[in-house]
Amino acid sequence: AQTVTQSQPEMSVQEAETVTLSCTYDTSESNYYLFWYKQPPSRQMILVIRQEAYKQQNATENRFSVNFQKAAKSFSLKISDSQLGDTAMYFCAFMKQHRGSTLGRLYFGRGTQLTVWP
Amino acid sequence: GAGVSQSPSNKVTEKGKDVELRCDPISGHTALYWYRQSLGQGLEFLIYFQGNSAPDKSGLPSDRFSAERTGGSVSTLTIQRTQQEDSAVYLCASSFPSGATYEQYFGPGTRLTVT
To answer: Is there a contact between A44 and B106 if contact means CB atoms under 8 Å apart?
Structure first.
């Protein structure tokens, strides 16, 4: 079974500062994908960043980057230059590679509520 | 094109009644997923459809829950004899079977309240 753990239920950061959200996971799979999703109060889940487990290079999307440590099964999200619009619930998620394809259910952590204050 | 749409946005029902929740995936997406989000349980997988294959129903919590997908497009999640513990936000997602674009696109969800 796959489990995803987010140990920080809430975090806050001042605008323009940097914040790191933690995520660890447990799996016996060797091929998988990791994601960070953002869910603002509108309820709309939005993909922030994704990482293929076979890639050693950490993914980066503008102000968002990850620190992927495969051996430690750790996948943290760093948000640089935080903006008020980053306020949301952030979910870490895991997906197995399914029979060589990239389809499969997501396993989610419990989420971290991030508040960015002025 | 349009994103994933779900209806209704909110649904209030009495305990014991049946409800149907609808999901319209992005056109061309062959994979469709239902998840449930509640305060107590977080985000839970319910069911997954992929093309004409038999759906993965392993996440359905009881036989009161069922889902179908007609014509490989629209999906309906049905909850029979609703209970208060069914109160949650039901999220639908769809994706396209491409090695480069496997992102699951989510709809805005249906908030179900059972009174």
So the answer is: yes
Would strands A32-39 and A88-96 be described as parallel, antiparallel, or unpaired?
A: antiparallel
Q: What is the mean pLDDT of residues B6-18?
A: 97
For chain B, the first-to-last Cα distance in angstroms comes to 37
Tokens at A82, concatenated:
């935080």
**Per-residue pLDDT at A48 exceeds 70:** yes
Would you say residue A41 has pLDDT above 70? yes
pLDDT score recorded for residue A31: 84
Q: Is A64 exposed, middle or buried (0-12, 13-18, 19+ CB in 10 A)?
A: middle
Residue type, B50: Q
Contacts of A95 in chain B (CB under 8 A): 102
Phi/psi of residue B86, each to 5°?
A: -80, -10
